[in-house]
């Protein structure tokens, strides 16, 4: 059986297929969603910065049109990626999440980071190439850790000023150069809440397209210290009983998976599946 969505580098010289248009305001959408016949979309005189073939959906090729600036198309409007994440079609979200990462990379690598000359797309490869100094740039993935800290029937949850009002989540942070995921975890926990942890266990990973994170999920046990939230980073952090949890992140996020998995194991419930 053919997988519904597979990523691939497609030749933009070929005709046909579907396309999505992404701009500063998100993805173009009409009453049928964000997927448009590619040739129709390319006739709309959009300010296209770059075009990339990104994969196959149900066997059909899908392309991304990354726009240089906002544009208006009759009968259409724009919708941000986070809104698609909260909707029911997980496969469509995966398509758009990948498109968003490729679009961000294409936008940020128009010029060589070494000699500042214009970069060109490499045929049949996900790379940008500088013909002057031979530098090649590939899509960037930034590793980060995300951890649920527990203490018996309690879980440590915190909220950032950037979160939706009332929502609490797990701690997370990007790895520094030369740092292992476990070292990053210990450092971030100390920085954000000044706690010590032990028995660190890897639980799974999730690609997080805001804009290019690879989230490495962990569980850790509380080892000591009192909660002291990091100024300007953590608005509040508390221990919550598994029977009385606050509003939590979206169900498709790895943060929610880590929480739901611990609660399920603590209460003897069916374990959730990590979203792909």
From TrEMBL:
GO biological process: NAD+ catabolic process; NADP+ catabolic process
Details of cofactor binding: Divalent metal cations. Mg(2+) or Mn(2+). Binds 1 zinc ion per subunit.
Residues annotated for a divalent metal cation 3 binding in this entry: 188, 192, 233
Entry EC no(s): 3.6.1.-, 3.6.1.22
Positions with a binding annotation for Zn(2+): 112, 115, 130, 133
CDD domains associated with the record: NUDIX_NADH_pyrophosphatase_Nudt13
Superkingdom of source: Bacteria
Record-linked PANTHER family: NAD-CAPPED RNA HYDROLASE NUDT12, NUDIX HYDROLASE, NUDC SUBFAMILY
Listed name of the protein: NAD-capped RNA hydrolase NudC
Organism: Pseudomonas taetrolens
Lineage per the UniProt record: Bacteria, Pseudomonadati, Pseudomonadota, Gammaproteobacteria, Pseudomonadales
